[in-house]
Amino acid sequence: MKVAIIGSGYVGLVTGTCFSEVGIDVVCVDIDKNKIENLKNGIIPIFEPGLEEMLTRNVKKGRLSFTTDIKEALTDAVVLFIAVGTPPDEDGSADLKYVLSVARDCGKNMNDYLLIVTKSTVPVGTATKVKSAVQDELNKRGIVLQFDVASNPEFLKEGAAIDDFLKPDRIVVGLESIRAEELMKSLYKPFTLNGHPIIFMDITSAEMTKYAANSMLATKISFMNDIANLCEIVGADINMVRKGIGSDSRIGNKFIYPGIGYGGSCFPKDVQALVKTASQFNYELRVLKAVEAVNKDQKLVLFNKIRSYFHNDIKGKTIAVWGLSFKPQTDDMREAPSLVIVKMLLAAGAKVKAYDPIAMKEAKHHFGDTITYVDDSFEALIDADCLALITEWPEFRFPNFRIMKKLMKSPVIFDGRNIYDLAEVRRNGFDYFCIGVNTTKG
């Protein structure tokens, strides 16, 4: 079976590479000629653990190829995945221009039956628009060809995408024909042999499932951050509360860690898009509007703690920042809390020295020369008035507090991810502030 994947970004590359890993012939398409040339030479545009090695291996074996020519990609292809971007429009809705452009290209270039699958995150009703766009182009050509559309949303976690694809919690597929179902069963058989379920449903439900899943996870995060803020006020410890509620199997212990808000390419835009979809049907998603509001405010919490500690005057202070990406194991800074925190520190007159294990190059696109970039975490601490930990990279979890104290102008840590133990940090002579714990108490 030959599979074509249109869009060679994060989702397209992971999908294509993992399909080729199990022996499927895959061709990935992108309009960016420079990107395609780089990919042919094993140079990938994103950081994802394990992806580069797997991609290179399958290119060498001839199972994975890259092109800018969609007509070439469609030759002998039975399944085509649309994996292009759906950026938020000005009103928060998902912009489908790239998705529908691919659909029109399919109609212009296909010459046999084709199963067209939306892998991009798209709102309810997109499959109908895709089907219409393809059919319009076939009508213009004056030919009759059979085709199906389907929805197969991705559930990939940045930093663990390879494992998520090869060992999925579940595979969700929305479709409307037996032929499409048999093709998708065959395509995903290598990934379901160990009991990973494939769930077939109608297309509308599949489109909704992706948004509902991300919105639920975002809701858990905002709920815990809201409770964490209340814990500080009343004197409770959010770390204890988290353990207390996480032991309830109905709640579970995942995504209930307090912090400084969610970011990335999915949660912010997907929550916005679902809210917009509801409004288009004259329904208000009140919970998700609150989720957005809490998350926006939560990105201010660490800055407010720093400013309060220095009596509302941080002009001229040097702030060491550990972590810039929105989460560990990625260089993605889209909607990252660091973007808000660092810019507010700069606006208040502070100087920022930052270190991130992977995202330094990406950070320069956002901050330019307004901050100082350093090569390791301890270098950032030299003569710093405090440390702001923003991203919980593994290498930050067990630092040498004794060396840290010697390097810093004043031993103060603002932990935006609650990765340190309050008692241990204090024993080492630091003032310590985290999320959801009133550390001003004895």
What is the fold's blueprint, element by element?
Layout lengths: L1 E5 L3 H12 L3 E5 L3 H8 L10 H10 L3 E4 L2 H5 L4 E4 L14 H13 L4 E5 L7 H16 L5 E5 L9 H6 L4 E4 L3 H15 L5 E4 L1 H32 L3 H9 L20 H14 L5 H13 L2 H9 L8 E5 L14 H11 L3 E5 L4 H8 L4 E2 L3 H5 L4 E4 L11 H7 L4 E4 L6 H6 L3 E3 L9
Parallel strand pairs: 1-2, 1-4, 2-3, 4-5, 5-6, 7-8, 9-10, 9-12, 10-11, 12-13, 13-14
Helix pairs in contact: 1-3, 5-6, 9-11, 9-12, 11-12
Distinctive features:
6-stranded parallel sheet, 18 helices, 442 residues, Rossmann fold, single chain, elongated, alpha/beta
Task: Walk me through the structure.
By secondary structure, the protein is of the alpha/beta class. The chain folds into three domains: 200 residues, NAD(P)-binding Rossmann-like Domain (Rossmann fold), CATH 3.40.50.720; 88 residues, 3-Layer(aba) Sandwich (Rossmann fold); 135 residues, 3-Layer(aba) Sandwich (Rossmann fold), CATH 3.40.50. The protein is built from 18 helices and 14 strands. The strands form three sheets. It has a six-stranded parallel β-sheet, sandwiched between helices. A six-stranded parallel β-sheet has the order 11-10-9-12-13-14. The chain has a two-stranded parallel ribbon with strand order 7-8. Helix 9 crosses helix 12. The longest helix has 32 residues. It is elongated, with a radius of gyration of 24 Å. The mean pLDDT is 95.
